[in-house]
Amino acid sequence: MSQSIGFIGGGNIAEAMISGLKKANSALEIRVTNHSNRGRLQGLVDRYNVIATSLTELVEDSKVLIIAVKPKDVQGVLKDLAGFSLQNKLVISVAAGVPLKVFYKYLPGVAVVRAMPNTSTAVLHSMTGLVRGDNVNDEQASVGEKIFSATGKIMWVPEKNINALTAISGSGPAYFYLFAESLIKAGVELGLSEAEAEVLVLETLIGSGKMIAESDKSPGKLREEVTSPNGTTYAALNVFMEEKLAQTVQNAAWACARRAEDLEGEYSE
Ligand SMILES: NC(=O)C1=CN([C@@H]2O[C@H](COP(=O)(O)OP(=O)(O)OC[C@H]3O[C@@H](n4cnc5c(N)ncnc54)[C@H](O)[C@@H]3O)[C@@H](O)[C@H]2O)C=CC1
Ligand SMILES: O=C(O)[C@@H]1CCC=N1
Protein backbone atom coordinates (compact mmCIF):
# COMPACT_ATOMS: atom_id res chain seq x y z
CA MET A 1 0.00 0.00 0.00
CA SER A 2 1.80 3.14 -1.15
CA GLN A 3 -0.96 5.48 -0.01
CA SER A 4 -0.38 7.60 3.07
CA ILE A 5 -3.31 7.45 5.43
CA GLY A 6 -4.65 10.17 7.70
CA PHE A 7 -7.00 9.45 10.61
CA ILE A 8 -9.32 12.23 11.76
CA GLY A 9 -10.12 11.01 15.26
CA GLY A 10 -7.74 8.80 17.20
CA GLY A 11 -10.08 6.87 19.50
CA ASN A 12 -10.83 3.16 19.94
CA ILE A 13 -11.48 2.09 16.35
CA ALA A 14 -8.69 4.28 14.98
CA GLU A 15 -6.26 2.69 17.42
CA ALA A 16 -7.42 -0.82 16.51
CA MET A 17 -6.98 -0.01 12.81
CA ILE A 18 -3.61 1.71 13.28
CA SER A 19 -2.32 -1.19 15.36
CA GLY A 20 -3.39 -3.70 12.69
CA LEU A 21 -2.15 -1.63 9.76
CA LYS A 22 1.26 -1.18 11.39
CA LYS A 23 1.46 -4.91 12.13
CA ALA A 24 0.71 -5.62 8.48
CA ASN A 25 3.18 -2.99 7.22
CA SER A 26 5.39 -1.22 9.74
CA ALA A 27 6.62 1.23 7.07
CA LEU A 28 3.11 2.52 6.32
CA GLU A 29 2.91 6.29 6.86
CA ILE A 30 -0.03 7.12 9.12
CA ARG A 31 -1.01 10.59 10.28
CA VAL A 32 -3.50 11.26 13.05
CA THR A 33 -5.29 14.32 14.29
CA ASN A 34 -7.39 14.16 17.44
CA HIS A 35 -9.56 16.90 18.79
CA SER A 36 -8.82 18.32 22.22
CA ASN A 37 -6.88 15.37 23.60
CA ARG A 38 -3.12 15.75 23.22
CA GLY A 39 -2.43 12.88 25.62
CA ARG A 40 -4.43 10.48 23.49
CA LEU A 41 -2.56 11.56 20.37
CA GLN A 42 0.86 11.34 22.04
CA GLY A 43 -0.02 7.80 23.21
CA LEU A 44 -0.63 6.77 19.58
CA VAL A 45 2.68 8.34 18.54
CA ASP A 46 4.52 6.46 21.27
CA ARG A 47 2.81 3.11 20.67
CA TYR A 48 2.63 2.99 16.85
CA ASN A 49 5.06 5.57 15.53
CA VAL A 50 2.30 7.55 13.80
CA ILE A 51 2.70 11.22 12.93
CA ALA A 52 0.58 13.58 15.04
CA THR A 53 -0.51 16.52 12.98
CA SER A 54 -3.03 19.30 12.41
CA LEU A 55 -6.05 18.77 10.18
CA THR A 56 -4.52 21.03 7.51
CA GLU A 57 -1.27 19.08 7.31
CA LEU A 58 -3.12 15.79 7.49
CA VAL A 59 -5.26 16.69 4.48
CA GLU A 60 -2.26 17.99 2.52
CA ASP A 61 -0.09 14.94 3.23
CA SER A 62 -2.59 12.05 3.07
CA LYS A 63 -4.12 10.41 0.02
CA VAL A 64 -6.72 8.64 2.15
CA LEU A 65 -8.62 10.40 4.93
CA ILE A 66 -10.30 8.13 7.46
CA ILE A 67 -13.03 9.81 9.50
CA ALA A 68 -13.11 7.99 12.84
CA VAL A 69 -15.05 10.31 15.12
CA LYS A 70 -18.35 9.65 16.88
CA PRO A 71 -21.39 10.00 14.60
CA LYS A 72 -22.41 13.25 16.34
CA ASP A 73 -19.00 14.79 15.48
CA VAL A 74 -18.97 13.86 11.77
CA GLN A 75 -20.76 16.98 10.54
CA GLY A 76 -18.25 19.19 12.35
CA VAL A 77 -15.41 17.37 10.60
CA LEU A 78 -17.16 17.69 7.23
CA LYS A 79 -17.63 21.43 7.75
CA ASP A 80 -13.89 21.72 8.43
CA LEU A 81 -13.05 19.56 5.39
CA ALA A 82 -15.26 21.70 3.15
CA GLY A 83 -12.49 24.31 3.27
CA PHE A 84 -10.05 22.01 1.45
CA SER A 85 -9.77 20.68 -2.09
CA LEU A 86 -10.29 16.93 -1.81
CA GLN A 87 -9.75 16.16 -5.49
CA ASN A 88 -7.88 12.87 -5.86
CA LYS A 89 -8.43 12.05 -2.19
CA LEU A 90 -10.37 9.09 -0.93
CA VAL A 91 -12.48 9.74 2.16
CA ILE A 92 -13.39 6.72 4.25
CA SER A 93 -15.92 7.07 7.05
CA VAL A 94 -16.23 4.40 9.71
CA ALA A 95 -19.00 6.25 11.55
CA ALA A 96 -22.11 4.19 12.26
CA GLY A 97 -25.37 5.63 11.00
CA VAL A 98 -23.98 8.48 8.90
CA PRO A 99 -25.26 8.02 5.34
CA LEU A 100 -23.34 8.86 2.18
CA LYS A 101 -25.71 11.73 1.39
CA VAL A 102 -24.34 13.66 4.38
CA PHE A 103 -20.87 13.55 2.84
CA TYR A 104 -22.18 14.72 -0.53
CA LYS A 105 -24.01 17.61 1.15
CA TYR A 106 -20.87 19.07 2.69
CA LEU A 107 -18.32 17.81 0.14
CA PRO A 108 -20.04 17.69 -3.27
CA GLY A 109 -18.37 15.26 -5.68
CA VAL A 110 -16.22 13.69 -2.95
CA ALA A 111 -15.08 10.09 -3.34
CA VAL A 112 -16.28 8.43 -0.15
CA VAL A 113 -16.40 4.85 1.04
CA ARG A 114 -18.51 4.04 4.08
CA ALA A 115 -16.79 1.33 6.10
CA MET A 116 -17.81 -0.69 9.13
CA PRO A 117 -14.79 -2.52 10.56
CA ASN A 118 -14.57 -4.04 14.01
CA THR A 119 -11.91 -3.80 16.67
CA SER A 120 -10.43 -7.20 15.71
CA THR A 121 -8.63 -5.25 13.02
CA ALA A 122 -5.96 -4.92 15.75
CA VAL A 123 -5.23 -8.65 15.45
CA LEU A 124 -5.71 -8.77 11.66
CA HIS A 125 -9.06 -10.54 11.99
CA SER A 126 -11.51 -7.76 11.32
CA MET A 127 -14.63 -8.26 9.27
CA THR A 128 -15.23 -5.00 7.46
CA GLY A 129 -18.28 -4.01 5.47
CA LEU A 130 -17.70 -1.48 2.68
CA VAL A 131 -20.16 0.72 0.80
CA ARG A 132 -18.95 2.33 -2.41
CA GLY A 133 -19.95 5.96 -2.88
CA ASP A 134 -21.07 7.30 -6.26
CA ASN A 135 -17.84 9.15 -7.05
CA VAL A 136 -15.40 6.39 -6.15
CA ASN A 137 -13.37 5.22 -9.16
CA ASP A 138 -12.05 1.68 -9.52
CA GLU A 139 -8.58 2.63 -8.33
CA GLN A 140 -10.00 4.27 -5.19
CA ALA A 141 -12.26 1.28 -4.53
CA SER A 142 -9.23 -0.95 -4.74
CA VAL A 143 -7.31 1.30 -2.31
CA GLY A 144 -10.20 1.09 0.18
CA GLU A 145 -10.31 -2.66 -0.26
CA LYS A 146 -6.55 -3.01 0.30
CA ILE A 147 -6.60 -0.97 3.51
CA PHE A 148 -9.20 -3.21 5.13
CA SER A 149 -8.00 -6.46 3.53
CA ALA A 150 -4.62 -5.82 5.18
CA THR A 151 -6.30 -6.29 8.56
CA GLY A 152 -8.92 -8.94 7.87
CA LYS A 153 -11.71 -9.80 5.49
CA ILE A 154 -13.98 -7.41 3.63
CA MET A 155 -17.47 -7.50 2.17
CA TRP A 156 -18.89 -4.90 -0.24
CA VAL A 157 -22.55 -4.27 0.50
CA PRO A 158 -25.18 -1.85 -0.76
CA GLU A 159 -25.80 1.02 1.65
CA LYS A 160 -29.19 -0.39 2.65
CA ASN A 161 -27.42 -3.39 4.23
CA ILE A 162 -24.74 -1.61 6.25
CA ASN A 163 -26.89 -1.40 9.40
CA ALA A 164 -27.58 -5.13 9.27
CA LEU A 165 -23.87 -5.76 8.87
CA THR A 166 -23.18 -3.44 11.82
CA ALA A 167 -25.60 -5.49 13.93
CA ILE A 168 -23.64 -8.66 13.21
CA SER A 169 -19.97 -7.88 12.72
CA GLY A 170 -19.45 -4.20 13.62
CA SER A 171 -20.85 -4.51 17.14
CA GLY A 172 -20.51 -8.31 17.20
CA PRO A 173 -17.22 -8.52 19.10
CA ALA A 174 -18.95 -6.96 22.13
CA TYR A 175 -21.55 -9.75 22.13
CA PHE A 176 -18.86 -12.44 22.25
CA TYR A 177 -16.95 -10.48 24.91
CA LEU A 178 -20.10 -10.34 27.06
CA PHE A 179 -20.55 -14.08 26.67
CA ALA A 180 -16.88 -14.63 27.59
CA GLU A 181 -17.18 -12.34 30.64
CA SER A 182 -20.28 -14.22 31.79
CA LEU A 183 -18.65 -17.63 31.35
CA ILE A 184 -15.56 -16.50 33.28
CA LYS A 185 -17.82 -15.34 36.13
CA ALA A 186 -19.61 -18.71 36.07
CA GLY A 187 -16.27 -20.54 36.24
CA VAL A 188 -15.28 -18.52 39.31
CA GLU A 189 -18.65 -19.21 40.96
CA LEU A 190 -18.09 -22.91 40.32
CA GLY A 191 -14.79 -22.76 42.21
CA LEU A 192 -12.10 -22.07 39.57
CA SER A 193 -9.65 -19.23 39.98
CA GLU A 194 -10.21 -16.23 37.71
CA ALA A 195 -6.94 -16.99 35.89
CA GLU A 196 -8.01 -20.59 35.29
CA ALA A 197 -11.48 -19.56 34.13
CA GLU A 198 -9.98 -16.98 31.74
CA VAL A 199 -7.68 -19.54 30.09
CA LEU A 200 -10.52 -22.05 29.76
CA VAL A 201 -12.88 -19.51 28.21
CA LEU A 202 -10.23 -18.04 25.94
CA GLU A 203 -9.11 -21.39 24.53
CA THR A 204 -12.69 -22.59 24.16
CA LEU A 205 -13.65 -19.43 22.26
CA ILE A 206 -10.63 -19.61 19.96
CA GLY A 207 -11.13 -23.34 19.40
CA SER A 208 -14.83 -22.92 18.61
CA GLY A 209 -14.06 -20.07 16.20
CA LYS A 210 -11.45 -22.16 14.44
CA MET A 211 -13.84 -25.11 14.21
CA ILE A 212 -16.49 -22.93 12.58
CA ALA A 213 -13.87 -21.48 10.24
CA GLU A 214 -11.95 -24.64 9.37
CA SER A 215 -14.40 -27.55 9.51
CA ASP A 216 -16.96 -27.92 6.76
CA LYS A 217 -19.77 -28.28 9.31
CA SER A 218 -22.36 -25.67 10.23
CA PRO A 219 -22.39 -24.20 13.76
CA GLY A 220 -25.60 -26.17 14.38
CA LYS A 221 -23.95 -29.48 13.42
CA LEU A 222 -20.90 -28.69 15.53
CA ARG A 223 -23.18 -27.95 18.48
CA GLU A 224 -24.94 -31.29 18.06
CA GLU A 225 -21.61 -33.11 18.12
CA VAL A 226 -20.82 -31.66 21.56
CA THR A 227 -24.26 -32.50 22.92
CA SER A 228 -24.63 -36.08 24.17
CA PRO A 229 -28.25 -37.15 24.71
CA ASN A 230 -29.20 -36.23 28.25
CA GLY A 231 -25.56 -35.38 28.97
CA THR A 232 -23.91 -32.34 30.50
CA THR A 233 -24.11 -30.04 27.46
CA TYR A 234 -27.75 -30.97 27.01
CA ALA A 235 -28.42 -29.78 30.57
CA ALA A 236 -26.75 -26.43 29.83
CA LEU A 237 -28.41 -25.93 26.44
CA ASN A 238 -31.81 -26.64 27.96
CA VAL A 239 -31.34 -23.59 30.17
CA PHE A 240 -30.44 -21.49 27.13
CA MET A 241 -33.57 -22.75 25.37
CA GLU A 242 -35.84 -22.20 28.40
CA GLU A 243 -34.47 -18.69 28.81
CA LYS A 244 -34.78 -18.01 25.08
CA LEU A 245 -31.16 -17.21 24.36
CA ALA A 246 -31.63 -17.48 20.57
CA GLN A 247 -34.50 -14.99 20.68
CA THR A 248 -32.51 -12.68 22.95
CA VAL A 249 -29.58 -12.70 20.52
CA GLN A 250 -31.93 -11.87 17.65
CA ASN A 251 -33.58 -9.08 19.65
CA ALA A 252 -30.16 -7.62 20.42
CA ALA A 253 -29.11 -7.64 16.75
CA TRP A 254 -32.39 -5.95 15.79
CA ALA A 255 -31.88 -3.30 18.49
CA CYS A 256 -28.40 -2.63 17.11
CA ALA A 257 -29.62 -2.25 13.53
CA ARG A 258 -32.50 -0.02 14.67
CA ARG A 259 -30.13 2.21 16.60
CA ALA A 260 -28.05 2.66 13.42
CA GLU A 261 -31.26 3.47 11.52
CA ASP A 262 -32.21 6.02 14.20
CA LEU A 263 -28.83 7.67 13.79
CA GLU A 264 -29.38 7.79 10.03
CA GLY A 265 -32.85 9.18 10.58
CA GLU A 266 -31.32 12.26 12.20
CA TYR A 267 -30.18 13.31 8.70
CA SER A 268 -33.55 13.09 6.98
CA GLU A 269 -34.92 16.50 6.07
N1 LIG B 1 -15.44 1.25 18.54
C1 LIG B 1 -15.78 0.38 17.60
O1 LIG B 1 -15.72 -0.85 17.79
C2 LIG B 1 -16.25 0.87 16.25
C3 LIG B 1 -16.55 2.20 16.03
N2 LIG B 1 -16.97 2.61 14.81
C4 LIG B 1 -17.27 4.02 14.57
O2 LIG B 1 -16.07 4.73 14.72
C5 LIG B 1 -16.32 6.03 15.21
C6 LIG B 1 -15.41 6.29 16.40
O3 LIG B 1 -15.72 5.38 17.41
P1 LIG B 1 -14.71 5.13 18.62
O4 LIG B 1 -13.32 5.07 18.10
O5 LIG B 1 -15.25 4.01 19.39
O6 LIG B 1 -14.91 6.52 19.41
P2 LIG B 1 -13.88 7.27 20.38
O7 LIG B 1 -14.69 8.23 21.17
O8 LIG B 1 -13.02 6.28 21.09
O9 LIG B 1 -12.95 8.08 19.37
C7 LIG B 1 -13.33 9.24 18.69
C8 LIG B 1 -12.17 10.24 18.80
O10 LIG B 1 -12.43 11.32 17.92
C9 LIG B 1 -11.93 12.50 18.53
N3 LIG B 1 -12.59 13.65 17.86
C10 LIG B 1 -13.83 14.15 18.07
N4 LIG B 1 -14.06 15.19 17.21
C11 LIG B 1 -12.93 15.34 16.48
C12 LIG B 1 -12.53 16.24 15.46
N5 LIG B 1 -13.36 17.20 15.01
N6 LIG B 1 -11.29 16.10 14.92
C13 LIG B 1 -10.45 15.15 15.37
N7 LIG B 1 -10.78 14.26 16.36
C14 LIG B 1 -11.99 14.36 16.89
C15 LIG B 1 -12.24 12.34 20.01
O11 LIG B 1 -11.41 13.15 20.80
C16 LIG B 1 -11.97 10.82 20.20
O12 LIG B 1 -10.63 10.59 20.61
C17 LIG B 1 -17.80 6.10 15.57
O13 LIG B 1 -18.46 6.87 14.61
C18 LIG B 1 -18.26 4.66 15.55
O14 LIG B 1 -19.58 4.54 15.05
C19 LIG B 1 -17.07 1.76 13.75
C20 LIG B 1 -16.77 0.43 13.92
C21 LIG B 1 -16.38 -0.14 15.18
O1 LIG C 1 -21.25 1.04 19.29
C1 LIG C 1 -21.11 1.73 18.27
O2 LIG C 1 -21.92 2.61 17.99
C2 LIG C 1 -19.93 1.45 17.35
C3 LIG C 1 -20.36 1.11 15.95
C4 LIG C 1 -20.05 -0.35 15.77
C5 LIG C 1 -19.30 -0.69 16.95
N1 LIG C 1 -19.22 0.30 17.80
Automatic annotation (TrEMBL):
Family: Belongs to the pyrroline-5-carboxylate reductase family.
Pathway listed: Amino-acid biosynthesis; L-proline biosynthesis; L-proline from L-glutamate 5-semialdehyde: step 1/1
A GO MF label: pyrroline-5-carboxylate reductase activity
Keywords from the named record: Amino-acid biosynthesis, Cytoplasm, NADP, Oxidoreductase, Proline biosynthesis
Organism (species): Desulfosporosinus meridiei (strain ATCC BAA-275 / DSM 13257 / KCTC 12902 / NCIMB 13706 / S10)
Binding site for NADP(+): A68, V69, K70, P71
Enzyme class: oxidoreductase
Domain Pyrroline-5-carboxylate reductase catalytic N-terminal: 5-97
A matching Pfam family: F420_oxidored
Function: Catalyzes the reduction of 1-pyrroline-5-carboxylate (PCA) to L-proline.
Chain's gene name: proC
Catalytic activity entry: L-proline + NAD(+) = (S)-1-pyrroline-5-carboxylate + NADH + 2 H(+); L-proline + NADP(+) = (S)-1-pyrroline-5-carboxylate + NADPH + 2 H(+)
Record-given protein name: Pyrroline-5-carboxylate reductase
